[in-house]
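Researcher: Structure prediction, please.
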Amino acid sequence: MRVALVHDWLTGMRGGEKVLEVLCEIFPRADIFTLLHVPGSVSPTIESHSIRTSALQRFPHVERRYRYYLPLMPWAIARFDFSGYNFLISSSHCVAKAARPQEGALHICYCLTPMRYIWDQYDSYFSRERARWPVRVAMGLLRRRLQRWDAGTSHRVHIFTAISGNVAERIRRYYGRDVSAVIYPPVDVDRFEVGRGAGGYYLVVSALAPYKRIDLAVAACSRLGRKLKIVGTGPEERRLREIAGTNVEFLGWRTDDEVAQVYRDAEALLFPGEEDFGIVPLEAQASGRPVIAFGSGGIRETVIPFTESHGASASARKGAGAGPTGVFFQEQNTSAVAEAILTYERHRAAFDPLALRQHAARFDRSTCKARLAEFFRETCGMGGEVS
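Model: Predicted structure follows.
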């Protein structure tokens, strides 16, 4: 019995690749199919598998500009031949879920999100402020076609599972499909140590993509005169540097150990985008640091928001493991982010670093791996293939 793992692209170790890494551990002999692979960009666990790429791998400048090839991705995923594979497991946020299994094979999709570029996050990518007019015109013409393709190919999946209840609801909305299970993605809690915010700065850890709304964090910290450090790279970096003041420091890509250090020393994590789940906020909480976030999407499943009652009983709650782990704001604008920062600063005593760590431990990597392995054995009948 042969297993194929299907992933959109391999260009760095972000949240989706951490999911794939766990799947590689559960299925150590599986082959990986992906549109694009930048060698050395993902973990040794993933790199140790046989990795097969699509025709896009040979296109010009694809390693840096693969997003521009979005209209060709449905064509590329359709060209994969899965003959001889009894099981397809796709970890999908773009087109991987459209992989077509051979007759009689089972396709299970661990859905990271329906394709956000063409559904609910379309304006974040292709508004007048975010994209040049040729791109806006092209996507305006292609959006409906891509939506029909995305919904239409959902029947190639026999069993859907999702990374959050938020994603499960969107699968029902866009694909008309029910989800067999919600299994939260892996957070490597043991990689982080509890810190006390000794650095005195606010922190962003993120791919610098439009829908992440890092511009709101930059603007709010500039308005309040607060130090901000940004870890990550991406297409928004040039624009963010243009609007940033001297209080903002761009750290670029950092090693795992370096990221763990900046978490420990941060005052709090700023998370102004709407996410499908959000591993980064849990990494911050594993480091004992609170999260200041837009209170929509998957964040509502991973952060306990501060209320005035928390502030009133902070001293009694210390060490009890039941306090708040973050502050929510309800509108995506600079004023809302700035006010949330001030709310946090007025009520620092309500946030117990050890309680934050305890909360994050519920989402530990070992829990995700055990739940996925059980799901594949019990629901999908893959007992002999699961390691």
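Model: DSSP finds 16 helices and 13 strands in the chain.
Researcher: Thanks, that helps.
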